[in-house]
Write a structure and sequence with these properties.
Elements: E1 17-26, E2 31-38, E3 52-57, E4 61-66, E5 76-82, H1 86-92, E6 99-106, E7 119-125, H2 130-142, E8 147-156, H3 163-169, E9 174-181, E10 192-195, H4 198-208, E11 215-219, H5 222-234, E12 242-245, H6 272-275, E13 278-280, H7 281-284
Parallel strand pairs: 7-8, 7-11, 8-9, 9-10, 11-12
Antiparallel strand pairs: 1-2, 1-6, 2-5, 3-4, 3-6, 12-13
The structure holds flavin-adenine dinucleotide and FE2/S2 (inorganic) cluster.
Length: 291
């Protein structure tokens, strides 16, 4: 009998692996930092910082989220999740012990090898801090970089996320909180609190640092990432030294369904789930026209 399976076909297992909701803490408004446990430790590959997983809530569906801490030997890992729509609302109704599903890790993580010996500035907005969390922890642990600064923007103090992590990091890295509405600023905090958007604060941030960044990593609303990237290009940072993590709607997460297709015309057949979500800035720009 003719076998229709050829060597060129790739087969994907789209069935989620079981995991348990261990517990969570409220973190910012309408957001929680969850701990999950793989029912069988090592049942997924170890994620790299910036990679994501598909979380499934039985009866509600699947959505992509980033690991803020990768699975340990017991299979326990963490993710910061904001309540948005069907899947996250159903997740927020789950109690400790609920059995959920996970697929992944997917996508390409941050370019860790290129960060060695670099003077790195990270700019994050809102929930965009989540995909940088694992990377910051890894960089602090390995110390292959020269300098590290984080500029974290939020609308106000109530919306700031990952507070325990930022408290821990401020002993190790230069940390700048930027708030559109500073309210009654708490002055006992060791990190700098600036007013406005990360872009508004950038002159002040760069004056405070006694080093000049040679690598920029961005994660947050696209309008913020574009503005900050363009600002650093004007300051002379090469496009090849700017990386960002982008979000698109995802269904399959393995390059089959086309939901995360990048509409930029020069990126034909390009899917954020497998080719992203992290990109070098120049890769996303249309090629310069030559007459
Ligand atoms: C690679 C990746 C990593 C992510 N990591 C995190 C994370 O760590 N933490 C976190 O809280 N969220 C993260 N997200 C976002 C999260 O996946 C979405 O908020 C998800 O849609 C929530 O599912 P839901 O069913 O609850 O909401 P949905 O019902 O899907 O959406 C609720 C609302 O958000 C809008 N929306 C959702 N996703 C998008 C999108 N990509 N583009 C434009 N509009 C959109 C919808 O139109 C709707 O108004 C990530 C997304 C991607 C692609
Ligand atoms: S989510 Fe299906 S192709 Fe990317």
């Amino acid at each position: 009998m003719h076998n229709s399976i050829t060597n060129h076909q790739t087969f994907y297992n789209l069935t989620p692996t079981a995991m348990e909701l261990v517990d969570f803490i409220d973190d910012g408004e309408d957001a929680r930092h969850f701990r999950f446990r793989l029912i069988t430790p090592q049942s997924i590959n170890t994620p790299k910082p910036g990679q994501f997983f598909m979380l499934s809530v039985p009866g509600a569906g699947e959505a992509p989220f980033t690991f803020t801490a990768k699975p340990n030997n017991q299979g326990v890992f963490r993710a910061l999740i904001r309540k948005m729509g069907d899947v996250t609302t159903a997740l927020f109704q789950c109690q400790s012990g609920a059995i959920l599903g996970i697929r992944g890790p997917f996508g390409k993580g941050w370019p860790i090898a290129s960060l060695s010996d670099k003077k790195i500035i990270m700019v994050a907005g809102g929930c965009g801090l989540a995909p940088l969390t694992g990377l910051i922890d890894q960089l602090i642990a390995e110390r292959h970089h020269k300098h590290l600064a984080l500029v974290y923007g939020a609308r106000n103090r109530a919306l700031q996320m990952l507070n325990p992590e930022r408290l821990r990091w401020q002993r190790e890295i230069s940390l700048f909180d930027v708030l559109e509405d500073t309210g009654e600023t708490v002055t006992s905090s060791k990190n700098h609190v600036l007013e406005g958007t990360p872009l508004d604060a950038m002159d002040s941030v760069l004056r405070t640092l006694d080093w000049t960044p040679d690598m920029l990593l961005l994660c947050g609303p696209e309008v913020m990432m574009k503005a900050v990237a363009k600002n650093f290009l004007q300051r002379g940072l090469p496009a090849q030294s700017i990386w960002l993590s982008i979000e698109r709607r995802m269904h399959c997460a393995v390059g089959l369904c086309g939901h995360c297709y990048l509409s930029e015309h020069h990126l034909a057949h390009h899917y954020v789930c497998k080719d992203g979500p992290t990109y070098r800035w120049d890769y996303l720009q249309p090629p310069e026209k030559t007459e």
